[in-house]
Amino acid sequence: MGIEPGRLHFSWISSAEATKFVDVVTQVTDAVRALGPHENFVKHMPKVA
Amino acid sequence: MVGYIDKIKEISERLLKEGTVEMVIGFQKGTLPMMNTPCFAKTPEDVGNFVWDSHCGINLANYLTDRKEKIGVIAKGCDSRSIVTHITENKIKREQIFVIGAPCKGMMDRHKIASLFETEIRSVAENDGKLIVTAGDGEKTLEKADLLQKNCAVCAHRNPVIHDELAADPVEDQKDVDRYADVREIETMPPAEKWDYFDDLFSACIRCYACRNACPLCYCPTCFVDESQPQWVGKSTDPIDTKTFHFLRAYHCAGRCTDCGSCERACPMGINMRMLTKKLEKDCIDAFGWEPGLDLNQRPPLDTYKMDDPEDFIK
Amino acid sequence: MKVIKIDKKDWADSLGKLSGPYRLFGPVRDKDFHNFKELGNDEQPDFNFQNTRVSAKSMVLPQSETLFTYSLDEKEPDHHQMREPEKNYSPRAVLGIRPCDAKAFLLVKRNFDTPEYKDPYWVRAYEASTFVGLACDDPCSTCFCTSAGCGPFHEEGLDLLLVDAGDHFLAKVLTQKGKNLVQAAGWGVETNADVELMKRTAESRIASAISTEQLKGKAATDLYHAPFWEEAAFACINCGTCTYSCPTCWCFDIQDENHGNAGVRMRNWDSCMYPLFTLHGSGHNPRETKIHRVRQRFMHKLKYYLDKYDAGIQCVGCGRCIRLCPVNIDIRNICELMNSHDPGACTCQVA
């Protein structure tokens, strides 16, 4: 529907895998930052006509 | 399919006379050409109103929701699959319904037919694979096969999957149908182009919810768009709210939609929201080998877990 | 009444002249159908249509309309107060509206503009508008305007009536507003042409009719308890298509929408077909089933309105609800059931 695939990420992380969690979160936030803000699926205040 | 009606009437009359059911749900002739309207018969005499032809596109499974009576219902392939879905979702019990199966060769796309004429259509008759259409600017004989509803043209299950009695012999299913050519086309678009495509697709939506209400699967007592505490989605015609409604409704039908085409047929603005549900249908086939509504004994993929469920999306 | 001849060659020029003093609205083709839109610079209304898909009511009662804005930011002096935003109520001209849609505004006006109550948004938008009608010479088979107090050349509610006469329009000036618009457009060629014959021809083309003469004499409770509602409502899926496409359905719902630290209070069209329409805060719903809701829609249009205002039914016969209903519920049939209902002949009980 027009949202870049890089914004969605799934991982199996056990509660014991703190380092993996940090790695994945860092990776994902970097990837999303590289894409920049998604501006389409954002609702704006209605304009007064 | 015109020949079905005698058999449909005979079965319905018998069911009502013998008290097997309290009502039979079928179609009666509408007030406009190419429009039949759902109706019920509660006495054997009422059955006289029933009609059956190529304009019975509305999915009658939608009329079973929350009824308490023992019901006879006329079901095409797609209707029967929706009924199976209702049964597997515990919405209705198999014993509550008597399915009068109507093998189907496809219903007509009345908008497409109307678009072939300059003036309004006055009457439509059908005869052996042909439609004889009379409009203000003359009469044309058309091939039914060229004028099927979009979902019927790519239908792979024309025969009722469950039935207690059939109104006619099963028909041959269409072979080599490419169900997803249009979905693949959208899949190849880059994200921005996809966004524009859906933006344009839903631009005419007036939020009348005809698509939702015509859908046999949309039976939630309160739809998420109607919730007010909390309010999940705005109620104006804001394009983001409108798309949120359509996207989420499609997701709620994932693994359940049988592509009966009710949503598209009901839309007063001619929006083809099936482009969303078909994509999810395709994904369910690709990921789980699942086609909904074919088997009373199988649970849908989204409410079961199997060891071999694909998980390559998990990184 | 004055009739003016407008050469179609001069049409675009006149619109150019009008676009200064007026905001122009007109039917525009969008994909497979026409709807009313504000016309852009040099954009022409497209008169090649039978009728617009949905009615022109949004010209005065938009589907979503902001009534107030507010801020929750305590640094702003008027935080937590509703402010009425500036709105553009400068003169506007609605070009090519069908007589049925224009007449519909008068039916709505009886409710929105009364000595006791005035809906300020509706009244201001209505008063700012000049309605330039386009007479109908090619009605749909579902049009029954002539038996619903209207007609293809009906003049009530219009300021100017255009009649397509081939290479020119004949314009009948009906009000002062119409006169002003004619002046602003620079139209001045008076003619003796008579549209009466065209009117009669158009009226004779309306092939469909309803009978309403018995409705007034019937007791509302008899109609309410009539046995036909279960059957009449059975096919209904309770979508809002009929109410949203209808030129006379006026119901709305008021909503606040927050956007961060600010928000709007808006009103949106609502529909008596929706279960939420009458849902009480307690959870009780007096119109719980679709039979209740379908009955309400038709009783309102064909009985309550008639009883309350004694000025006909709340329907102009545009036929949109018939054409667009996904399950072919036909107001002409329901009207006939109501009009011919004989409570004495009925022995059965309904819930």
Quick take:
By secondary structure, chain A is mainly α. Chain A is built from one helix and no strands.
Counting structural domains of chain C, the number is: 2
Low-confidence stretches of chain B: none
**Helix/strand/pairing class of chain B, anyone?**
alpha/beta
N-to-C SSE string of chain C, H for helix and E for strand: EHEEEEHHEEEHHHHHEEHHH
Label the overall shape of chain C. Answer: globular
Largest sheet of chain C: 7 strands, mixed
Number of domains as seen in the coordinates of chain B: 2
End-to-end separation of chain B in angstroms reads: 52 Å
Strand content of chain B: 5-15%
Shape of chain B: globular
Terminal-residue CA separation of chain C: 55 Å
Assembly of the depicted chains: heterotrimer
Q: What proportion of the residues of chain B is helical, as a percent range? A: 25-40%
Question: Proportion of β residues of chain C?
Answer: 15-25%
Largest interface: B-C, 40 and 40 residues
- The count of helical stretches of chain B stands at 10
Q: What would you call the structural class of chain C?
A: alpha/beta
